[in-house]
Every structure is written in structure tokens, then in C-alpha cells.
């Protein structure tokens, strides 16, 4: 049984890593969305701009660049706009690849258990399966924690566009959790608790990012001396509103982030708008010129 789980564990881990690598290569070599079911179709299909899913962070990143580069010193960083394009492309690829790998793990783990049930004696099945999935599961959890760590560092830099990678991933993890729980039924408690722990970490860092974004809108020093002379809406207000529009794709995820941390609800009361939206609106309203 040890030989069996070691062989199958290695195969499962290689499959996940191979999918990620193949996804990266496919995304970089063509604008056509990746599909492992049609690997040869790419040659006959004209290259076109991919259609982004609602969870894609590109639009919000582009809108937030200008504000993120103000920082807290009031200085603009326009010279860095071009290099950031490549970074945003990479963030999109990394986010999509991770989401695909999470889904693939669930499906492959289900298949492994079905195969195991036909080979391993019943009283050894759960322990063998638990050992079999550890390497692949630990790899996914480590990558998720690295995303959380990168988001924490981005918050310190006031680089909120990078933090947005957490939103589509967290939403997908929550959507996939019921299947995760089902496939991990019978495994050790430490195995079952890995995904909930990652979800909690992402909710914490996401709530921190949202709170800091609202606070920075309120406290940005540039707003005091750089008011529009033509009577238009302040640039900071415009960027904040556009950012909130992009967060509509993640409003349930963002709301759950804030609720899980008990953030922003006590002072605002049971209003029909999200606490984040209200806080940003209150800060931005001071700089709105008609």
C-alpha cells in the first residue's frame, strides 16, 4: 500500500504541476483561451484577444494603477505605467492557472479515490487516500499562502491592484469548498482544515486591503492641494468610483471579507450598501465638484 500511494501521489502531483505549466505556455503563446480538450485546434484558429471572465482582475487593475502610484507622498509614477502592463498580464495568468489547478485537484482526487476503492482493502482506503493527496494538496495550499503573502506586501506598498488577485481566487475556493469537503471526507482533521485555513487567510488580507483602500482615499495628501481648476470631478474621486464599479463582480466576496472580520458595519448600521462603498463615497464626497 505504501508503494501504491507513493506512485499515485507522484502522478497526481505531476498532473497538477503539468497542468499549470501547460496553462502558462498556452497563455503566453496565443491569445486564444486555453482548453486541454482541444490542443491541436490552436494551430488552425486565428489568434484573437481572449474574452475575459467576470472574475478577471485586469480592468480593475488598470483603473487602480493611477491611484496606486500616488502612494501617500502625493507623487505620481506615470513613467512606470508601461512596465506594469506585463506585470498585470502575468497576474492574470497566475490567477487563472491557480483557479484551474484547484478545480483539477478536486476532479483528479475524486478519480484517485474511485481507483483506490477497487484496489486497496476497505479498512486501509481512507488512510491511503489521505497520504496519496498530501503532496498535491500541500503544493496548492503553499501557492495560496504565497498569494496571501504577496498581497500583504502589496498592501504595505499601497499597491492595491496586486491585492485584487485575491478576489477571484477566494470566490472560486468558496464555490469549490463543498466538493473539496466531500472528496476529503474520511481524511485526517489536519487535511480537512487546510482549505478553510487558506480561505480565512485570504478573507483577512482582503478585508485589510479594502479597509486600507478606503482609508487612503480619505487621507491622500494630494487631494488638499491639487483640486481641479475646471470644476470637474477630482481625479481621486473618479478613480475610486471606477474601482468600486469593478468590485461589483466581487461584491459578495468583498462583503463576506468585511463581515468575517467584523469590519465597517458597527458605525454604518444596516444600510443597503456595502460598508466599503459607503466609506469610500463618504471620503470621496468631500472632493466632488459639480
TrEMBL record:
<keyword id="KW-0653">Protein transport</keyword>
<keyword id="KW-0813">Transport</keyword>
<dbReference type="GO" id="GO:0005546">
    <property type="term" value="F:phosphatidylinositol-4,5-bisphosphate binding"/>
</dbReference>
<feature type="domain" description="Exocyst complex subunit Exo70 C-terminal">
    <location>
        <begin position="98"/>
        <end position="267"/>
    </location>
</feature>
<comment type="similarity">
    <text>Belongs to the EXO70 family.</text>
</comment>
<dbReference type="InterPro" id="IPR016159">
    <property type="entry name" value="Cullin_repeat-like_dom_sf"/>
</dbReference>
<comment type="function">
    <text>Component of the exocyst complex involved in the docking of exocytic vesicles with fusion sites on the plasma membrane.</text>
</comment>
<protein>
    <recommendedName>
        <fullName>Exocyst complex component 7</fullName>
    </recommendedName>
</protein>
<dbReference type="GO" id="GO:0006887">
    <property type="term" value="P:exocytosis"/>
</dbReference>
<dbReference type="InterPro" id="IPR004140">
    <property type="entry name" value="Exo70"/>
</dbReference>
<dbReference type="GO" id="GO:0000145">
    <property type="term" value="C:exocyst"/>
</dbReference>
<dbReference type="Pfam" id="PF03081">
    <property type="entry name" value="Exo70_C"/>
</dbReference>
<dbReference type="InterPro" id="IPR046364">
    <property type="entry name" value="Exo70_C"/>
</dbReference>
<dbReference type="GO" id="GO:0015031">
    <property type="term" value="P:protein transport"/>
</dbReference>
<keyword id="KW-0268">Exocytosis</keyword>
<feature type="region of interest" description="Disordered">
    <location>
        <begin position="22"/>
        <end position="55"/>
    </location>
</feature>
